[in-house]
Amino acid sequence: MRRRAEELHKCNDGEEVEVWGWVRNRRRHGRLVFIDLRDSTGVVQVAVKGGIADDESLEKASSIRKESAIKIRGYVVHDPRAPGGVEVRCTKLEVIGESLDDYPLRKGVGAKVLYDNRHLYIRSPKITALLKIRSNLIGAVHEHFRSKGFYEVDCPTIITAAVEGGATLFEVNYFGSRAYLTQSVQFYQEAAIYSLEKVYSVQPSFRAEKSRTTRHLTEFWHVEAELAFADLETLINTVEDLVHNVVIRTEELSEKELKILGRKIRTEEVEKPFFRIKYEEALGILREHGLDAEWGIDIGADEERIISSEFDRPVFLTHFPREVKAFYHRLDPTDRRVTLSADLLAPRGNGEIVGGGVRIHDYDELIERIREFQLDPNDYKWYIDLRRFGSVPHVGFGMGIERILKWIIDLPHVRAACLFPRTTTRIYP
């Protein structure tokens, strides 16, 4: 019976098993060969010994290359000297898929080599553990939203007009017409709330930003949500609950993987309530650090790092000036210089992980804001049309999966948080 690596410790001594996997390492000691065999659940030590395994199996084990796929038949022996305290004594080795060349990844190679060979590097136990944590985090996102009565929707990736600004659009030829890869599914979610009221999506977004920071990707996975009949306070509370619950749940689900990585999720950093400051207060923090922070500046990665370093929990930064937020943000009725917007910055200098705000629900105000940004209302005809038929106050936000992971497990760069990263300098493999 086939057993996975993580199941072997439950087997009795002498129990016959089959184990399938890939050769992680091989060590030869005469007529005894040790193979570290990995599968998706972990690594088990296999002993191929003359007199127990047949001669053909011993010969194969003695010459098998790293990362060859093999099937082992044998029996379980509990041995405290073996990794994980269990070993499989091989009676028969079968090669399923042989490595045709020596494996190109060796200890000490640089980051460029590792990312040029990302298709191979993801086989390492540490990257496997990281990808499992990512999977657990996304699972926790779905679990949270569904427990709160949200419906998942799938929105188009190919769009005809900018959501976040034309300068960061990837253009595509759509059967002779000009189209773009989506920067956000927000507009389609706004349409969906008139049917479902509370919706969310987990989809990729694309930004043609030439930013070369440790926090930027050109393709990233975006958790987005929109809520009908909601205000800024509802938005802030919704985001706070999401981040708190998702981080706690990810830590609960990832005990084994965190141990492999030697990391700990600081769950104390998501204790509620999170901090809240207005844009004007943030300018004061920047000035205290010697920056010339005048009203109207856009708070970018460097400024976010300074602000978030002042807090030991996430901090909501609210009420940005109207000129620095996109046209769809509603203006504060009590101070029309600012928008009803809220970004969430992660502590320890990690910066923005969530961006959101109150959407404009009034037809005339939306037209005015589109023109203020020197955009053509005809490009947004169907979006504007939503305000003509039963429009309601509503809010929405987006959260970056890779940025959340970078923060909670202290990754050096968001590119480490995804399977195959896309940056300004990398589109291969």
Largest sheet: 8 strands, mixed
What is the global morphology?
elongated
Strand order of the largest sheet: 6-10-11-18-17-16-13-12
Continuous helix count? 12
How many domain modules?
2
Oligomer: single chain
- Overall pLDDT level: 97
CATH architectural type of the largest domain? 2-Layer Sandwich
Compute the CA-based radius of gyration.
26 Å
Low-pLDDT residue spans = none
In angstroms, what separates the terminal alpha carbons? 37 Å
CATH superfamily of the largest domain: Bira Bifunctional Protein, Domain 2
Strand content: 25-35%
- Total number of β-strand segments? 18
Helicity range: 25-40%
Could you name the CATH topology of the largest domain? BirA Bifunctional Protein, domain 2
